[in-house]
Design brief:
682 residues; 4 domains; Jelly Rolls; 47 strands; mainly beta; 7 helices; 7-stranded antiparallel beta sheet; 10-stranded antiparallel beta sheet
């Protein structure tokens, strides 16, 4: 019991002590973490523009900046094609003939009794003779005709002259009249024909022929009676185009195209065209219950010497349905002759020869076809992109108006630079197979940091820069160069402004003198005219004040609960191998690169010493600079919100000519020492 009492009271006091506290227990903790590091050199300009002098590894600038690039947008083959269709109105039935005899015995039964005898035949005047069945199933089962003709021929095989025949043709089913006409003065062994227009007529395969009236002359003395001879009725149908028919339609071409098809080229007049890409699309839809064959050929399109052609089969449509066929032909690498169907007779442009035939393949079956039945063909050349085109590229003038182009040579750099014996040229590279001209209306250099503009004044640019056609080889180009120096321009002032932006206004004209090449212009898919500003500067720079910049991402949220930070200080380490000193500025930025605050650097601590150099000015040992920044409450709050930090180093040269070597750089690294308040909950 005593032992228990001895340990119980201290524990009870501790529990009571903690039970009585209203605030959590807290203590301080320190965390040291790297914030960012960067290395800046003249590579901020862009290493690809800097070449090393082989003797001593110093820098030389060689730089071409694209000011403006022109492509011949008018050499574009717009989608083109044709749509052809036909229905029953365009579908033909065969021209056919049937013959039906009406004998002397049918005309007057008495002649059957006299058959084979010689007798006088008196004048005949018969009316409403019995109809004769006529089988017209060789024509069709039935047809309602949009157009067509029925030729009725009456041949007189009687031994007397026929004075009059009145003939009627009716459909057997409903006795509807098909034809009715009179035939007069038909001599022995003679023939008379009448044409009946069948427009809007319905004709069935079962017909009845009726002689409504027949009058003949008397015979000239006794004649041999042949009761099986009489009047032959010959029915011939021709040029039949039905609205609806049940028939065996003959094989026939229903669509025929053999002509030139013109493609709009946006102003260019093309003779030859090699396709880098493109499609020929054919869509065939039929509701006709017969097989179809489509044959197409583009005689003017060849690949490896082989003409583009194909035969496409389309099966018969099911009753009440349709049959469809879609063909997609790749035109890549086809060379298309755009001189038309027969260039030896008529040499034209932008027109290719195409042959297109759709044929109905008759099965001999009788099928039903109506006006709603049709064949529809869509034939299109789409997305045609030239690998190259040859012809007349047109006369075009492009005026840019006021435009801007980045000048990346001095990207991220501003300050006081002087260059010695540098060379600047305005260069025009022409990869388009046509002559042209470039007129520089204005050119200004803008330093986006100092907001200073310098307009280029150059005597040579008062005139047009003439450009000539390159040879017909992919990626070949001609160069027209205007050298700018102190004697003909203010180019030195222009360049030493260290522009990051070029404001330009120029005119670009192709074929200013028209079609002087006689359709021998050409353009490849990548052909263009480039206007460039070319700068070549030697190794020696006169350096006054200049600035190098960088931006690094930071995120304090990755370090835990930043709300507990009580205080912080930043340790900055700078290593400089430039032969000139510098000043450092650090700016905290938000997610949109907006400035939050600048970190306070004491002016006396801000100075970064120049590197140690040998007698030739070559950096032999970097200068190391250390300083500490105290971060107050407002800076800590800004640091919590910051997503980026901008590092700006401002170098202060002597203004004397000196070399900058490829080893010259400045490295900045930091760590932040944070003091946290850590609390233990209740």
């Amino acid at each position: 019991m005593k032992t228990f009492t001895k340990f119980f009271w201290p524990i009870a006091c501790i529990v009571l002590l903690f039970a009585c506290k209203r605030e959590p227990l807290s203590w301080d903790n320190r965390v040291v973490a790297p914030l960012f590091k960067t290395k800046l050199g003249l590579g901020q300009i862009d290493a690809k523009f800097l070449t090393k002098t082989p003797t001593d590894s110093s820098y030389k600038l060689t730089y071409e900046n694209l000011v403006y690039s022109y492509r011949m947008a008018n050499v574009r083959a717009y989608d083109t094609g044709l749509t052809a269709s036909f229905n029953l109105k365009k579908l033909k039935l065969n021209d056919q003939t049937i013959v039906q005899k009406i004998t002397l015995g049918q005309i007057n039964p008495i002649f059957k009794l006299l058959n084979g005898q010689t007798a006088d035949i008196p004048e005949q005047n018969q009316g409403n003779l019995s109809p004769v069945d006529i089988d017209a199933s060789a024509f069709f089962e039935t047809a309602t005709l949009d157009s067509g003709y029925l030729d009725i021929s009456i041949s007189n095989n009687l031994p007397v002259n026929v004075k009059l025949v009145v003939f009627e043709l009716t459909n057997a089913g409903d006795n509807s009249q098909v034809a009715y006409d009179s035939f007069t003065n038909i001599p022995m062994n003679g023939k008379v024909t009448k044409r009946i227009d069948l427009r809007d007529k319905t004709v069935t395969k079962q017909l009845k022929g009726s002689i409504k009236r027949l009058t003949t002359e008397a015979s000239n003395g006794p004649v041999l009676i042949d009761a099986d001879k009489g009047v032959d009725v010959e029915l011939t149908v021709s040029q039949l185009r039905p609205r609806y028919a049940i028939a065996a339609f003959p094989s026939q071409n229903v669509i025929e195209q053999d002509e030139g098809l013109t493609v709009f080229m946006g102003g260019a007049e093309v003779k030859y065209f090699k396709a880098k890409a493109g499609k020929l699309k054919i869509n065939l839809v039929s509701t006709i219950q017969e097989d179809m064959t489509m044959y197409f050929e583009i005689p003017s399109a060849k690949k490896n010497g082989v003409v583009l052609s194909s035969i496409v089969k389309l099966p018969a449509a099911p009753a009440g349905g349709s049959s469809k066929r879609f063909e997609d032909f790749d035109l890549t690498d086809y060379i298309i002759d755009f001189r038309g169907k027969n260039p030896d007779v008529k040499d034209t442009v932008n027109t290719f020869h195409q042959i297109l035939i759709v044929r109905l393949d008759s099965s001999g079956r009788k099928v039903a076809i109506g006006l709603r039945d049709s064949i529809r063909l869509e034939y299109r050349m789409e997305s045609l992109v030239p690998d190259y085109a040859i012809g007349y590229m047109g006369q075009s003038l492009t005026q840019t108006g006021d435009q801007k182009a980045p000048f990346d040579l001095f990207k991220g750099l501003n300050g006081d630079f002087k260059f010695k014996d540098f060379k600047v040229s305005l260069v025009v590279k022409n990869g388009i197979g046509a002559d042209g001209r470039v007129k520089i209306n204005s050119l200004k250099g803008e330093n986006i940091f100092t907001k200073n503009f310098v307009a280029l004044n150059a005597t040579p640019l008062a005139n047009d820069i003439l450009i000539t056609s390159p040879p017909f080889v992919r990626d070949a180009y001609t160069v027209s160069e205007v050298v700018l120096d102190g004697s003909n321009s203010n180019i030195k002032t222009f360049i030493e402004n260290l522009p990051q932006m070029l404001d330009y206004n120029l005119d670009m004209e192709v074929n200013p003198n028209g079609n002087v090449s006689l359709y021998k212009d050409f353009v490849f898919d990548n052909s263009r005219v480039d206007v460039l500003l070319k700068v070549e500067a030697p190794a020696n720079f006169s350096v006054g004040e200049f600035v190098l910049r960088d931006t690094q991402a930071i995120d304090l949220q990755t370090m835990g609960d930043v709300s507990r930070i009580k205080s912080a200080k930043m340790e900055v380490n700078v290593s400089n191998t430039f032969p000139i000193g510098a000043k450092l500025q650090l700016t905290l930025l938000d997610a949109e690169m907006g400035s939050l605050t600048e970190l306070d650097i004491d002016p006396s601590d801000q100075v970064i010493e120049p590197a140690v150099t040998d007698v030739n000015g070559y950096p032999s040992q970097p200068a190391e600079t250390f300083f500490t920044l105290g971060l107050g409450k407002d800076k800590i709050e800004a640091l919590k919100k910051a997503k980026f930090i901008a590092i700006t180093t401002t170098f202060m040269g002597s203004g004397q000519m000196q070399k900058i070597y490829d080893v010259s750089s400045i490295s900045v690294s930091t760590v932040v020492d944070f003091e946290y308040e850590v609390k233990m909950g209740k």
